[in-house]
Model the fold of this input.
Amino acid sequence: MRNVPRLLLWTDTPGPYIDAIAKAGLSDRVTIDSLSRKDQPSEAQRADTQVLLAAGVPAGLLPTMPNLRWAQSLTAGVEGWMALPDLPDNLTLTCARGTHRESMPENILAALFHITKPFTAIVEDNKQSLWRHRVATPLNGKTLGILGLGAIGQDVARLATALGMRVIGTRRRPAPMHDVAEVLPAERTNEILGQSDFVLLLLPATPQTDNFITAERLAHMQPDAWLLNFGRGQLINDNALIAAVKAKTIAGAILDVFRQEPLPQEHPFWSTEGILVLPHIGGPHPQRDSIVAKLFVENLGRFLDGRPLQEVVDRTAGY
Done:
């Protein structure tokens, strides 16, 4: 019998991945195991698995998988993987970077519209059958600063530019971009903060970005500017943000990600006027697994053919 690689789908929703593998004509080239997230791989699975698809793994597992060559993360962020004390040096780790492009840019635009359009207030007026004149603030002519001009940031820039906004931002390796008026390195973040009416955080979680938004950085923002975080909760010093919003150093914030999720009921974000807590709606999509499956199957074909994989994690950069 021909020896084929053993693939472990460690997810509660293996169906879309199995279907995508079959549709790509790869079913006869792999042995597929699926495992619920509440269960642990068997001894045979740990010994034989060469390819792993999972949201994350507990410490102590990977060293017991001697034949594992490639792990595909179900998420774009890989801070959990990178924090493992026993992540093998020779393991290729790929992430789901770019798979939020069908949902997150729209949800970010929705946040911008929420800030500038009075529909929420009008809904409350409707409950009282109250006709109250309200004026929407145009986004046209405003400046959007994006910290982290990756795949999502570039899509947001395209959509924001179509609305007449001026887009500026930062990138680890600055280079001219379509729909972005100015691309600066992270060291010049304060210049972006000072120019922007809205600051969008899309940075990854790394040691360098932990508590990236401090009281000092918030002080560089305009007093009528808003902060939007759709990146990682670790990017913001929570106490500094609360203080800045209360002191009117900035106008307010819309937050979709947090250090702890679900956000504890006692967290002061809930009760701080000017801060809107979103329940991590930015990236989820009704067909999320099918979208990730497209990337995974592309990579699986590459793996089987001995070609370079896409979205390989840069361990030095941390994403």
In short: The radius of gyration is 22 Å.
